[in-house]
């Protein structure tokens, strides 16, 4: 991994202060990408995702949607997710977009967004909310919390990564989502489906669903897509 630097940051959002984890590439500057957490919170895994993006040359910001809390089991994670109003999550993420676009370290006129599970849903909500300010939206199994009812505001190119054996978010719903985005937004849309289960990208997930082959392929596709679309 290329040498990176990281720091905890505070930024204005929704009339108050929000916090996040910022990872910078070795060069100190690059295209901006927002990394949106799973229902567990801003975990070491999500920080690692931000670091991996920084090693690829991006300025990666992972906002903390839970105010410093991290879930320790699925029951607690589900409860914390339900306690996060979708409107509040979207407002916090809007502040993250403002922060990156105002940063001297960010060289792009748009930002990318990627996220996982709940975060994947919020990726799509953010793209619908922010329009042309989002250059690329990359949801991983983003069906459920945070998913918008309409994609008419999406201007970002969308690349989705979904699991064929996802019992929580069935692949049929993902295919319907893919078609709805394409129909309503008119944006460039490509979805990939993997012979894997939910959370296949998370090598720290206690569910044990991590799939190294699927994760590696999805990650390489996502990085190249962000590199191409976020300018």
UniProtKB/TrEMBL annotation:
GO terms for molecular function: hydrolase activity. It comes from the Bacteria. Residues 20-228 form the Dienelactone hydrolase domain. InterPro entries: AB_hydrolase_fold (IPR029058), Dienelactn_hydro (IPR002925), Dienelactone_hydrolase-like (IPR051049). Pfam families: DLH. This is Carboxymethylenebutenolidase. It comes from Homoserinimonas aerilata.
